[in-house]
Design goal:
The chain is an alpha+beta fold and about 110 residues long. It has a domain of about 40 residues. The protein contains three helices and five strands; from the N terminus they run H-H-E-E-E-E-E-H. The protein is elongated, with a radius of gyration of 21 Å.
Length: about 110
């Protein structure tokens, strides 16, 4: 799904009276708020959906796959997303529904 697809779904969910341009501003505003919060080291918790956090990764030694020589990877901050139990359950239910065979033995 692209950002344009997301904007289109939001516009459909809201219904008539709100343009796609307005929905694009809302989506951009939300994404910018997430980016700024994470850049500032804060986390965002959306109940029933999940949590966006910044995780500190330790310095480590890795290996160059081409030459095999050891390479030091410096410590860094990286954004992570942890889905809520509700979201994980919905995704699992959706996957089970897709892969579950139909009454005739074929897939649905």
């Amino acid at each position: 799904m692209t950002k344009a697809d997301l904007v289109e779904q939001v516009a459909e969910a809201i219904g008539p009276g709100v343009t796609k341009r307005d929905c694009a501003l809302v989506v951009d505003g939300f994404l910018n708020a997430v980016k700024h919060a994470l850049a500032g080291g804060r986390h965002i918790e959306i109940r029933g959906f999940g949590t966006f956090k910044v995780r500190e990764r330790k310095e480590r030694m890795a290996r160059n796959p081409r030459t095999g020589e050891p390479v030091r990877v410096p410590a860094r901050s990286t954004p992570v997303f942890k889905p809520s139990k509700f979201l994980r359950a919905q995704v699992a239910e959706g996957n089970a529904r897709i892969s579950r065979p139909g009454p005739d033995g074929g897939s649905r």
